[in-house]
Amino acid sequence: MFTYTEILGILLMFFGTVALAIPLGKYIAKVYGGEKTLLDAVFNPLEKLFFKLSGIDASKEMNWKQSMVALLVINAVWFIYAFVILIYQGSLPLNPDHNPSMTADLAFNTAISFVVNCNLQDYSGETGASYFTQIFVFTFLQFVSAATGMAALAVLFNALKERTTDKLGNFYNYFMKSLTRVLLPLSIVVAVIFLFNGMPMTFKAKDTVVAMQGDTSQVSRGPVAAMIPIKHLGTNGGGFFGANSAHPFENPNYLTNVVEMIAQLLISMAMIFALGYYLKRKKLAWVIFGVMTVGFLMLAIPNIMMEVKGNPAIAKMGINMSAGATEGKEIRFGAAASGYWSILTTVISTGSVNAMHDSTMPLSGMNEMLAMMVNAFYGGVGAGMLNFFIFIIIAVFISGLMVGRTPEFLGKKIEAREMKIAVLVSLLSPLLILGFTALASYFAAHDTNMGWWFGGKASTWLNNPGYHGFSEMLYQFTSSNANNGSGFEGLNDNNPFWNITAGVVMILGRFIPIIGPVAIAGLLAGKKYIPESAGTLKTDTLTFGLMTLAVILIITALLYFPALALGPLAEYFSM
Amino acid sequence: MGTERKAALFEKELVGEAIIQSFVKLNPKILFRNPVMFTVEIGTAIMLAVTIYSAINHDKSQGSFGYNLAVFLVLLFTVLFANFAEAIAEARGKAQADSLRKTRQDTKAKLVVEDRRGFEVKTTSTVSSQLKKGDIFLCVAGDIIPTDGEIIEGLATIDESAITGESAPVIRESGGDKSSVTGGTKVLSDRVKVLVTTQPGESFLDKMIALVESATRQKTPNEIALTILLAGFTLVFVIVCVTLQPFAVYAKTPITIAAFISLFVCLIPTTIGGLLSAIGIAGMNRALRANVITKSGKAVETAGDLDTLLLDKTGTITIGNRKATNFYEAPGVDKNTFIELCTLSSLADETPEGKSIVELAGYEKVKSLSIEGSVLIKFTAETRTSGVDLKDGRRIRKGALDAIARISENAGNPFPQETAAKVKEISSNGGTPLVVSLNEKVLGVIELQDIIKTGIKERFERLRKMGVKTVMVTGDNPLTAKYIAEAAGVDDFIAEAKPEDKMNYIRKEQASGKLVAMMGDGTNDAPALAQADVGVAMNSGTQAAKEAGNMVDLDNDPTKLIEIVEIGKQLLMTRGTLTTFSIANDVAKYFAIVPALFITSIPALQGLNIMKLHSPESAIMSAIIFNALIIPTLIPLALRGVAYKPIGASALLRRNLFIYGLGGVVVPFIGIKLLDLFISLLV
Q1: How far from A310 is each of A254, A299, A336, CA to CA, in Å?
Q2: d(CA A350, CA A184)
């Protein structure tokens, strides 16, 4: 049966993260508030030089529209840059293993995937990417895509201050500060820990190893330790190797496993506290933290329990399940830590895995999907809070009406325009997830001949027929929409149909949920500030937290219940 | 508090009219305004086609004819119930408006014809509907006033019971703040000349009548925002239901059209969608029932959001005028003599203060006194004293401290220190000292006190709990104002107020983001009434005031704003709670319908049938019947409004979340299970 040390390990990881996130949040609030910090001496001159070269006046305040235009433009540039490198990587330097260039559809999918902080990988790192790509495309994008989400959230923070304005700070400044004051220093610290635990950092080609039986095997390596810190800190999740953090070079031991888990949750959690410090509404931050944590635990605890308990169908065969459900898991980490990671990586949009989600119990798989469907229990760096903001707006609206007062949040009235945006953003996820899954199911059900280009007959996409096959398709689009990037690996997704559809879902699932909340916040910023009175519904209370949680749970359940009934639920009940 | 004309929720004739309207409203052009119910109607139309198809073709793949027919009928009733909710609310409004309109039926009017120089030459007889703005008409005792207007000459007692339900006659006179008359009221005595102030068909009543008729009813901002949210929920469930088709095909589970449409109709928020416009209309009706005529639904809604309320002291917080409460004689003066002299000075004084002095002295004292042959000295702004010169040459004066002090000083008489101290004490207690002198010698002081209305403190307490700050506006000095403010429990006051002070206060509050309401009746209140977010004019007030405000209170009751605030809050709360209830209902409906859709081909999903419903068909029927029946069940709630309790926003949210959120989850489980038991007995 499960060992208490495993559970203790999980508790330590969680509370360790909280303990680090609070001071980090305070620090981030200082950074965005323009206060002096320790690293100014190092980075200020560097930033000045950069802004001078690029002709950006980082002191000029922008309105929300200008900020979003800036965001879209720099993202578009990165996409083109990444796409070009990927289709020519075979001929570029730093490719000792002579990995080939990517096909156009794979490059399209991969470039988007890294630009939007999703890191859905339809390729395998060992054979699909050169060292040049890993460093100058993937690692680079992992930094800037994380900073994009953080900067967008910084604009939202600014917009929620108690005043009326359309000047919401400078987007480039927030972006740069996110990189130099938060992501880069933290990545360096984490990288040093990894290096000391044996993570490779080399530009040499594959190594040849002679195994104990005398077989020779080729072992891939590379500049791994440079990428893995930001992969987690930036909630990217794109692994250096195909097996992601289940690979011994990406996650050598239990300590690195702990560090990786803390790293992926750290900034997302710190951003909640940053909101509290920045707006001087610490209680609100704690309420948000509480709601997110309860949501997280509601998913994580059952998963840990189910994975530790093991597979009842196998147990029935008389096989010992005392180590838990071990299929697709690394014994080094164990069932409990893998169950914890499976929810951690899906509630926040990391999508890195240390065990194969395809092999988790049916309801664990459902919880992983639910985590991504909500995508706001902590969520990706910046993006998670932005998603949560939409739920807050809907909760504020309904509860405002319920107490007989025009709904307001932080002293700003929520009216028809804000509701329109909030509704449109909330409509997007079900439209993308259910719409594209419906399309794929239609092809799969009719076994449509998609042609050679589209991966042959549609039924060959699925390694597992039936409910599990349906779950694989549903998972793929859920993961793409949530910009999570993890996969139910049973799906043969490296073909134009999946590359392109998932690519489209990723783009829409990234930018609309960023622009929507920022737009709402921008509109609110322009409104008159109404001071709190006794009739105002306070949003920093347990009651309101409960309301928000109820809104999240009910909306998510209503949207996805029929789909989940046909996938994981049907699988569970048939077991 | 106004006299409410109580009416049963469902009067017979109203129900009849509403039932007819429920069918009329099936017209897609009308129903299109309500996106939620419109989609249900589309679903109903599809089911009609399926029913006809299954009747002709005997094709069992879409279910039996009887089953399809049953689904069709239930859906049809869902739409009809929603239409009925709106129709009954409208009918009640119309009934109210009609009873008002009766008073506006053509009445004879005596039109005054003037010559070119403006001299009256004759009166001709005409009918009220012919009167135009600017016309002048004459009314004498017994006449019904033909239309809204302003008295320009004369004074009359008027019976306004036709519009206010209040039987006590009121006095209206030209000039001043009580010059306005309303069409339909009756002149009881005297004669007045009235200037018509509205065009035919544009009086307040006409506007109100138009407002309750849904055709001209504008949606309020919150209603628009909520409609967007509901449209969003509808669209989301379109996505859920449409995508379910390929999912089901993949899972090799054919789903009938009836099941699809049932699922869809159950999921979209039909409860709130069906009741939304009824709630809005009912809110306006409640305002009308409280004898408040609103110019727009928005004003009622805004009232629910008010932060600050400006109230005149006189007549609102205190009953009319000050009253004498004590006589304090100066040392060496006989108490009895002092009271006698005070009474003598006031016997002929017609001011309320004067009368109250006589009242305080008592009948016994008054009986023995006479002021025959004496000269009454009226109050003037110059002397700031009033009094009487008696036949025997004694000169009694009463007035403010400084005025009397000057008189006595000029005559070389010292001002008694004890009286000066008393004056100070009275002032600091919020009273008004009235110093009395005899032959330029100070005799003592009369204390006048404002009498705070009984129950007003509790009302302000209630407002404070609602989060509304009350501000008293008074002409008193700050000391007196402060005392009364504290005694009455208002949060703030404006002392020595000039008309522009009100305006400035409103502007200041609004600049800090607050919504402000005020009540007023005078022409000099008009700018402030217009500036306020909710301006309530007294029906007795001047035309300018009534034009400037966005509500008119027929009862002329200044505390009416409290009711208006509650009506506004109720309006929003009813929408919010029913939305929550409607969405929460979906949880149970899912557990009824989703297993029903799939268990035939995926028996394992029986595990989701936690209600243990009898069969897929009975499960679906139970869910849609529940969905339909909940609409008429909630009509009374929609019309009456959810009870508002000033217990603070968070407590209110907890309460409503518990009743309508948790209740919304639990109730349908019970309802659907019971319906299923019933259906399984029938089949």
Answers
A1: 21, 17, 11
A2: 18
Chain B, residues 377-406, CB within 8 A of chain A, namely none
From chain A, pick out residues whose CB is under 8 angstroms from the CB of B637: none
Please tell me which residue of chain B has the smallest CA distance to A471.
Answer: B247
Which residue in A301, A305, A299, A310 sits closest to A575, CA to CA?
A310
**A360: amino acid identity, one letter:** T
- The answer to whether the beta carbons of residues B84 and B632 sit under 8 Å apart is yes
Token pair 């893995």 in the structure block, residue: A228
Cα torsion through A164, A159, A410, A284, rounded to 10: -150
Chain A residue with minimum CA distance to B513 = A530
Q: What is the pLDDT of residues B69-85, one digit of tens each?
A: 999 999 999 999 999 99
A positions 55-84 inside 8 Å of B (CB): none
B248 CB within 8 Å of a chain A CB: yes
> Given a cut of 90, is residue B111 above it in pLDDT?
no
B253-296 residue pLDDT tens: 888 899 999 999 999 999 999 998 888 888 878 887 788 877 77
Active site residue B312: yes
Angle value at C-alpha B238, between B73 and B278, nearest 5 degrees: 60
Provide the token pair at B11.
């009067």
Note whether A537 contacts B240, CB cutoff 8 Å. Answer: no
pLDDT for residue A144: 96
Q: What phi and psi, each to the nearest 5 degrees, are found at residue A57?
A: -95, 100
Query: Does B610 contact chain A (CB < 8 Å)?
Result: no
Q: With contacts defined as CB-CB under 8 Å, which chain A residues touch B570?
A: 404
Residues B312, B450, B533, B676: which is the catalytic one?
B312
CA-to-CA separations, B399 to B350, B404, B434, in angstroms, rounded:
15, 6, 5
- B569 contacts on A by Cβ (under 8 Å): 403-405
Q: What is the pLDDT at residue B433? A: 86
Contacts of B433 (CB under 8 A, 6+ apart): B400, B401, B422, B423, B426, B427, B445, B446, B447, B448
Burial class (CB in 10 A: 0-12, 13-18, 19+), B180: buried
Strands A412-413 vs A408-409: parallel, antiparallel or unpaired: antiparallel
How far apart are the C-alpha atoms of A166 and A510, rounded to whole Å?
24
pLDDT value of position B2: 36
Question: What is the distance between the alpha carbons of residues B92 and B71, in angstroms, rounded to a whole number?
Answer: 31
- The top-scoring range by mean pLDDT among A390-404, B342-356, B529-543 is A390-404
Q: How far is B70 from chain A (nearest CA, A)?
A: 24
The pTM assigned to this predicted structure is: 0.85
Task: Reply yes or no on whether the pLDDT at B4 is more than 60.
Answer: no
Distance from CA of B506 to the nearest CA of A (A): 15
Tell me the shortest Cα–Cα distance from A431 to chain B, in angstroms: 6
Report, in this order, helix, strand and coil percent for chain A, each rounded to 5: 65, 5, 30
Of the ranges B102-106, B416-420, B598-602, which one carries the lowest mean pLDDT score?
B102-106
The single-letter DSSP state of residue A245 is G
Taking CB atoms and an 8 Å cutoff, what residues of chain A touch B467?
A: 405, 533-536
Angstrom distance (rounded) from CA A8 to CA A15: 11
d(CA A368, CA A364): 6
> Which residue has tokens 């794979």?
A106
pLDDT for the residue B212? 59
Q: What is the spatial distance between Cα B158 and Cα B179, in angstroms, rounded to a whole number? A: 11
pLDDT value, residue B153: 83
Walk along chain A (575 residues) in steps of 10 and give the mean pLDDT of each run. Answer: 74 93 97 92 91 92 95 96 95 91 93 92 90 95 96 96 91 95 96 94 89 87 93 92 88 90 94 96 96 95 90 84 82 85 91 87 94 93 95 94 89 92 95 95 88 80 86 94 87 87 95 96 92 83 94 93 92 87
